[in-house]
Design brief:
With 291 residues, this protein is of the alpha+beta class. The protein contains 13 helices and eight strands. Strands 2, 3, 4, 5, 6 and 7 form a six-stranded mixed sheet that branches. β5 and β6 form a beta hairpin. α10 crosses α13.
């Protein structure tokens, strides 16, 4: 696990210059999809990637695009190489993983592309795949006939240079990684999975650390065992929900990972001195109790 730092300005400049040279649209997306960088002209109707912009306006189409991208990313990362495929609309795309020491930092995605001249027949084939989406068909058709046309040799050549770019952006520190310390991993895992049935076993499997070593680490760094830490975090989340919402206590117990409301009440009272119901009532009365 790691945090990714990205120089968005420099990467966008790289994408823009590549487009100016080749008229091929490429985008950069981080491994966790939290960072997405496209060409500066992506919203312009004469931009070669405008087809995607129109398609993604529909919720279902956007979801299919995401699923298609994620599947291609997995395939490219598993093989550590460029992956050329057809998207759900039947058009060619290229996935280029950005790798460092066998870890995927993100990816460049290139396309959409046509391997031959756009024709009315080919457009009809594409439209048959897209006609149920809530999009402007005329605008999509105009964008289709402006798609970049490249044969297999040119696609391979463009992909080769994008692959070189993927290595360059790491070496030039356009992207860099910040390793999370083991305790940071633990806190992030617990925070992301509070409502789930998690345990020291599931955490050790996730971190690939033995249970005994993990238990010792948590005890030495946090001054409590894993179960105590998990209960403390769940109760803190429950306190926030109790203060800020009118959610039923039974529902709060489930949303914070307690399967049994009576057990939730017991742990909550042990850590706060109050039952969840009394805690909420005290907060509503805005008394001066220090809780």
């Amino acid at each position: 696990m790691f945090n990714l730092s990205v120089d968005k300005k420099k990467i966008r400049e790289l994408l823009d210059q590549f487009y100016n040279l080749s008229f091929v649209n490429i985008r950069f997306i981080s491994y966790d999809r939290k960072i997405r960088i496209g060409n500066s002209n992506a919203a312009h109707e004469n931009f070669r990637g405008y087809f995607c912009s129109i398609l993604r306006q529909d919720k279902l189409a956007n979801e299919r695009c995401r699923n298609c991208d994620q599947d291609a990313f997995k395939r490219a990362c598993s093989n550590h190489q460029i992956y050329i495929y057809k998207c759900h609309a039947g058009l060619t795309e290229v996935m280029v993983p950005v790798m460092f020491e066998n870890r995927a930092l993100g990816y460049f995605i290139m396309g959409k592309l046509l391997k031959g001249p756009p024709t009315a027949r080919l457009w009809q084939e594409v439209w048959n795949k897209c006609k149920d989406y809530e999009i402007n068909g005329q605008e999509l058709e105009k964008a289709f006939f402006k798609l970049n046309v490249m044969d297999d040799i040119k696609i391979q050549a463009a992909a080769y240079f994008v692959n070189m770019c993927s290595k360059y952006i790491y070496l030039s520190k356009m992207v860099s990684i910040d390793e999370l310390q083991p305790i940071g991993h633990i806190k992030q895992y617990v925070n992301d999975n509070l409502e789930k049935d998690i345990s020291i076993t599931s955490l050790s499997n996730y971190l690939n650390i033995s249970k005994s070593h993990l238990s010792h680490m948590i005890k030495s760094k946090m001054g409590m065992n894993f179960t105590q830490y998990l209960h403390a975090e769940r109760v803190e989340k429950a306190k926030t929900i109790l203060k800020e919402t009118n959610m039923a206590i039974k529902e709060i117990s489930l949303n914070t990972g307690f399967k049994n409301q009576n057990y939730f009440n017991k742990i909550f009272k042990r850590l706060t001195g109050f039952t969840p119901k009394l805690y909420r009532e005290c907060k509503k009365l805005k008394n001066n109790m220090n809780i």
